């Protein structure tokens, strides 16, 4: 399992899908999962505010299905608020070696990407929370993303 994490708009989904495509082209049976797409439950549970427990269980079940269908490589993209979060996901698929890579982008790049997604540009991401936000809200998202970009690298299991 290769997990790509990083701040909002760092490029996790775009890079993850490109890696999946390249791995698949080599003939390796591979799968791709964006964790935001496997835990869209509203309202969130009081005891699982980030939805990580739900998403981790869903990821384990999805990976089991992919493995049963012959997949040997899983590419995962998703934000991670800590190394502990990544470990919670990595521990669920038993017998799966994992590598975690944190993507980084500079403040100007993050601001440009956040603004573009807010206007509806960039890749179509179902449930994208940035689409349609007003410019002030997008600026706050970009600032938070830029502050988080220097965080410690995520550590996997």
Largest sheet composition: 4 strands, parallel
The domain count comes to 1
Physical arrangement of strands within the biggest beta sheet:
2-3-1-4
Here the CATH topology equals: Rossmann fold
**CATH class (first level) name:** Alpha Beta
How would you describe what is shown here?
This protein is an alpha/beta fold and 157 residues long. It has five helices and four strands; from the N terminus they run βαβαβαβαα. The chain has one domain (2-148): P-loop containing nucleotide triphosphate hydrolases (Rossmann fold, 3-Layer(aba) Sandwich), CATH 3.40.50.300. 42% of the residues lie in helices and 13% in strands. Strands 2-3-1-4 form a four-stranded parallel beta sheet, with helices on both faces. The model is unreliable at 150-157 (pLDDT under 50).
What key attributes describe this structure?
157 residues, alpha/beta, Rossmann fold, four-stranded parallel sheet, 4 strands, 42% helix, 13% strand, disordered C terminus
Compose a concise summary of this entry.
The protein is of the alpha/beta class. It has a single domain, classed as Rossmann fold (3-Layer(aba) Sandwich).
């Amino acid at each position: 399992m290769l997990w790509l994490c990083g701040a909002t708009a760092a490029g996790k989904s775009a890079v993850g899908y490109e890696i999946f495509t390249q791995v698949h082209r080599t003939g390796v049976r591979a799968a791709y999962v964006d964790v935001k797409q496997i835990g869209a439950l509203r309202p969130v549970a009081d005891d699982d505010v980030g939805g990580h427990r739900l998403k981790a269980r869903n990821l384990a079940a999805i990976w089991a299905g992919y493995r049963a269908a012959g997949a040997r490589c899983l590419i995962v993209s998703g934000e991670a608020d800590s190394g502990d979060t990544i470990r919670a996901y990595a521990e669920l698929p038993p017998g799966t070696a994992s590598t975690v890579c944190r993507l980084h982008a500079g403040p100007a790049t993050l601001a440009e990407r956040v603004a573009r997604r807010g206007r509806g540009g960039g890749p179509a991401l179902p449930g994208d929370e940035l689409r349609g936000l007003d410019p002030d809200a997008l600026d706050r998202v970009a600032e938070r993303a830029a502050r988080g970009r220097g965080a410690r690298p995520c550590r996997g299991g």
